[in-house]
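To: structure desk
From: M.T.
Subject: fold request, one chain
Message: Could you run this one when you get a chance? Sequence is below, nothing fancy, just the single chain.
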Amino acid sequence: MTGRQRTWRPDWPCEPYDILRPLRRGGADPTFVLGDSGVVWRAARTPEGPVTLLISPRRSEGVIDLVAWGSGADWMLDHAPEMLGAADDVGGFESGYQVVREAWARNPNWRVARSGLVLEALVAAVIEQKVTGKEAWLGWRRLLTRFGEPAPGPGRAREMRCLPTPAVLAHIPSWEWLRCSIDGARSSTITKASRVAAGLERTLDRSPADAEAALRSVPGVGVWTAAEVRQRAHGDADAVSFGDFHVAAHVGWAVTGSVVGDDELRELLESERPHRYRVQHIVTTRLAGRPRRGPRMAPRRHLPV
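Reply: Done. Structure tokens follow.
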């Protein structure tokens, strides 16, 4: 099966894995494989069908080779530059916090990815609601393995999977969700979102406020989940993960030396508009967090394993 090809020359030193890492759901994510020399394999369900995408940077020449297989190949090749950060405007970004400015100066080439895949981002974010990362990644992997479609082309040999169709997601029985370690509250939200998937995808063309309102119209989608979707699918550099204790604590510790809550986090980040998520990402990925003195959240034991 011959893949469709494109060579893209970004106007900045683009490092694909660094930019795409927020789209990866754990080291065993069946939609994401990191190869040698920063090569990235990505499997996804696009509006035109499933696709496997190979992203190969040629750093010495400043170009990125893209090869895509499947019915979604043309769509993915058209949208790959935005997925790799081409739509993110860092012009004028200068944080009011010295630690953030210094961290940004060490690597000013990170960009916010815009996957253009709303349902994919929403399903993954819902699975991550109120559980440990280990639990969430297990649930994502089991859902894709049990109900996802094998990725086309060479993705199949790498055991990669594409997100199930909205119709499949909407009709997964309750006991199968439990076998995926996804409880009823989260599976109910995914089911409801799948039934309005077409409308959710149209939020890509709406303003940030309208997109958030549309996402939050789905029962079970709150401010945190909507922000996680806007960060990844919409490429919104201003979407903050309010409602996440760890984000508030990490940002507060980095810029004030103390742990803060959501109200204080809003105040601290107000002057950083329209780059609040950029600041969140810089702090949580490049700066040391507060010292951990208490026990970590334990995985729950009442779901099938």
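Reply (cont.): The first helix runs from residue 16 to 20. Let me know if you need anything else for the meeting.
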